[in-house]
Specification:
By secondary structure, the protein is of the alpha/beta class. The chain is built from 9 helices and 6 strands; from the N terminus they run H-E-H-E-H-E-H-E-H-E-E-H-H-H-H. The chain has one domain: HUPs (Rossmann fold), CATH 3.40.50.620. A 6-stranded mixed β-sheet has the order 3-2-1-4-6-5, sandwiched between helices. The protein starts with 12 loop residues before the first helix and ends in a 5-residue tail after the last helix.
């Protein structure tokens, strides 16, 4: 195995900007008040690994310390980076972060984004509560929120992106998204510099998903309106309704 990549301070300019942007979201949306133990959904892709490194780096630095617990959903077919469990274990061991692995039961014949998302979410929530965590961090970034807003607008006529903080009352879990202000291109560059860039989805369905097509549409729109992603994501944060966003979180990809 190649050397295990670990991103940690002292940062270069990009790392400093990412940490600053993450801290801004945490303070702006009051994500960590009263949280002394935080779960993180760790797929092994660039987004979740970047979030893991950044959260580990800020704990106890300008804010109260908190313990991290990483949760990975494995299985024959799952929406993730396709990296081996040993790779994630090695990273978590270096960071002294416990890793919990849950297995998805999905098979090729019943692969479908909506039901798969619900199963993974249920596994993550149950694992977080078993570990004593009432909050779980997801690696969704600004571009994810822009895509989600358009998908919900086109699918259901609802103006809703991804909320930065959601209390899932039925599950007894709070979701936080500390990367909500971060552009995907920054995460890609950060992952390349630190050596943990990986293919982000190995699911045979995901490559033809509505989310993928929405991203391609946004690329076309940005040729005419360069600030489209930023503006759409900002509109989602400012005007998206709580009710619509709660339902939107499980929108079919």
């Amino acid at each position: 195995m190649n050397e295990i990549p670990i991103a940690q301070p002292p940062w270069n300019g990009l790392g400093k900007k990412l940490e600053s942007t993450l801290r801004r979201a945490i303070y702006e949306f009051d994500m960590l008040t009263g949280v002394d133990k935080l779960a993180i959904a760790l797929s092994g892709g660039k987004d979740s690994l970047a979030l893991l490194f950044l959260l580990k780096a800020i704990s106890g630095r300008g804010m109260p310390p908190f313990d991290l617990v990483a949760i990975n959903i494995a299985g024959e077919f799952t929406c993730g980076a396709g990296v081996g469990e040993s790779y994630l274990k090695a990273i978590c061991q270096k960071l002294e972060v416990p890793l919990i692995t849950k297995i998805s039961t999905r098979k090729l014949e019943d692969l479908e984004c909506y039901s798969c998302s619900r199963e993974r979410r249920s596994l993550l929530f149950s694992a977080a509560k078993e570990a004593g965590c009432r909050s779980i961090a997801f690696g969704h970034h600004r571009d994810d929120s822009a895509q989600t807003l358009l998908m919900n607008l086109f699918h259901k006529g609802e103006f809703a992106g991804l909320l930065p903080k959601i209390h899932m009352i039925d599950y007894g879990i709070t979701i936080i998204r500390p990367l909500i202000h971060v552009e995907e291109r920054m995460i890609i560059e950060f992952a390349k510099q630190a050596g943990f860039a990986r293919i982000t989805c190995q699911c045979p369905v995901g490559q033809q998903s509505k989310r993928k097509k929405t991203d391609e549409l946004l690329n076309e729109i940005e040729q005419h309106f360069p600030n489209a992603r930023h503006n759409i994501a900002q509109a989602a944060l400012q005007y998206g309704s709580q009710k619509a966003a709660l339902k939107a979180d499980l929108v079919q990809k």
